[in-house]
Recover the amino acids of this structure.
């Protein structure tokens, strides 16, 4: 689980840096950082098994990866990741 946490934390740091860099006007660098964040979050999500005990962590990571894919204009990947996140056991009673 620590690898998942490390990847997720790295993704969030990269995403924050991308927002700051974009705000400061460096779109190309922001796009690169956003893509790196997306890749880290996707790796983290894919490490979580699709089983009830993994929720809600699994579905949240897939939603986060989908949001980062959307930020990278990866529309099809975002759609697939949303579907993947909802295909498990995202709702805990």
């Amino acid at each position: 689980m620590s690898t998942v946490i490390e990847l997720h934390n790295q993704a969030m740091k990269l995403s924050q840096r991308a927002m700051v860099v974009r705000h400061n006007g460096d779109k190309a660098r922001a796009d690169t950082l956003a893509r790196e964040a997306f890749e880290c979050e996707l790796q983290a999500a894919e490490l979580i098994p699709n089983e009830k005990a993994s929720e809600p962590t699994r579905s949240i990571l897939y939603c986060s990866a989908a949001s980062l894919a959307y930020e990278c204009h990866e529309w099809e990947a975002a759609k697939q990741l949303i579907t993947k996140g909802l295909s498990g056991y995202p709702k805990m009673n």
